[in-house]
Amino acid sequence: MVKTKNLTLMVTAAVFAALTCVATMVVQIPMPLTKGYVNLGDVMVLTSVWLIGSPWGVAAAGIGSAMADLLTGYAYYAPATLIIKALMAVAAFYIAKCFMNGSYFKSLVGKVIGGTVAEIIMVAGYFVYAIILYGNVATAAAGIFGNAIQGAVGLIAGVLLTVALEKAGTKKLLGFDK
To answer: Is the pLDDT assigned to residue 138 strictly greater than 80?
Structure first.
């Protein structure tokens, strides 16, 4: 029998995977040179892992992001997206966790540092994947600016959304504050 907390974690992770997928799909700005797109999915990648932790938040981030690629015709990016977004979530979570037992300000700094490292992983990961996919550094480099903008927006909005949800008592409501 599944314990109530485990069931809550699984269901919450599934909801966050769906929200990540939708956030990725709702706003897509095509990047013709790399045949990819800029999106808002990183907001939910960061929020999911900061609210529900690892491994469930990592799974939600990777699966939700990869599902968006599959559902919107970018299946050739899905394997890389699964790995890159999961690595982002791992970095964001564990770096932020190092700051969690301090003050509110220290926790916020941890999220900013963790999110920044996560977004660097995203930009670097898609750069390397584009080199592998297209065999051309110039084509891969063309995606850096769009990915950096996506990362900056994802970081700022992810921190703001997470802080708002924490202030609203979401973690306590779901039983994740213990």
So the answer is: yes
